């Protein structure tokens, strides 16, 4: 039986009487790629925000690596090993590519914001930063300002900064949003590589990517779980087909 790294039980969230998420239960197996999909307004982002503690649930519970994190703060959950990247690339534009990763590497050392320290004190992190950049294909761009990178490369840098935190569970919020075909291939390969040593949970609209990468897919509609399973099983589900009727074959 697969080990469960993250479990949500009966998760619900109401906003001024409106139920955005209703009784969602979810189990994510360790060392898997798990996708969360659904039509627009299905509650995917709300579930993601609940799991990563950017929102507090109205009811239900969340267990991460055997620990109840239902009332934990987002920063504390990140320290436990659940790290999230966002739909919009979040990098320090006026720092170099290497410096962006180095800042992430400093966090576990407690020196993240000690900018007054002599540069020699953290120069030994450059080798580690370059190793992370090599994983995402940015080794040769380490001296460039992040602002100089094209959009797809900024997405790769954002994933590099999350990998630098050595997460047990990496949460990706629409990693392919706004990317062209070549960048989608590159980021897909990166996600697959990252999943060799950690668990990935992602919200993704591109069903081709979901079909290619995911071990398990959870489908949401109207704030509830509609179906769950491997892609072929989910794709053949009549209820899922009805939920996606008229949305096309390439996006959710």
- CATH topology description of the largest domain: Rossmann fold
CATH superfamily of the largest domain: P-loop containing nucleotide triphosphate hydrolases
Q: Ranges with pLDDT <50 over ≥5 residues?
A: 246-252
Q: How many E strands?
A: 10
| Spatial strand arrangement across the major sheet | 6-7-8-3-9-10
Q: Which radius of gyration do the C-alpha atoms yield?
A: 19 Å
Q: Give the amount of beta strand, in percent.
A: 25-35%
Tally of DSSP helical segments: 9
Structural class by helix and strand composition: alpha/beta
Can you tell me the CATH architecture of the largest domain?
Answer: 3-Layer(aba) Sandwich
Percent helix among the residues?
Answer: 25-40%
What is the number of independent domains? 2
State the distance separating the first and last CA atoms.
31 Å
Helix-strand pattern: EEEHEEHEHHHEHEHEEHH
What is the molecular shape? globular
């Amino acid at each position: 039986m697969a080990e469960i790294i993250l479990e949500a039980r009966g998760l619900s969230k109401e906003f001024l009487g409106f139920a955005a998420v209703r009784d969602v239960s979810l189990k994510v197996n360790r060392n898997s790629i798990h996708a969360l999909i659904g039509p627009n307004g299905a509650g995917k982002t709300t579930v993601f925000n609940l799991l990563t503690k950017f929102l507090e649930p109205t009811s239900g519970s969340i267990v991460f690596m055997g620990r109840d994190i239902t009332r934990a703060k987002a920063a504390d959950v990140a320290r436990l090993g659940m790290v999230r990247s966002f739909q919009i690339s979040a990098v320090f534009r006026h720092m170099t590519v290497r410096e962006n990763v180095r800042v992430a590497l400093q966090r576990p050392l407690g020196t993240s914001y000690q900018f007054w320290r002599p540069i020699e004190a953290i120069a030994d992190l450059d080798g580690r930063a370059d190793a992370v950049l090599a994983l995402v294909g940015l080794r040769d761009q380490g001296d460039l300002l992040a602002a100089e990178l094209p959009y797809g490369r900024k997405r790769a840098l954002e994933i590099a900064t999350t990998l630098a935190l050595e997460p047990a569970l990496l949460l990706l919020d629409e990693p392919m949003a706004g990317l062209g075909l070549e960048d989608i291939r590159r980021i897909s390969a990166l996600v697959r590589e990252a999943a060799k040593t950690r668990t990935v949970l992602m919200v993704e609209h591109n069903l081709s990517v979901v079909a290619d990468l995911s071990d398990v897919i959870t489908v949401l509609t109207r704030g509830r779980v509609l179906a769950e399973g491997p892609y072929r099983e989910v794709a053949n589900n009549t209820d899922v087909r009805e939920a996606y009727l008229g949305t096309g074959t390439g996006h959710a």
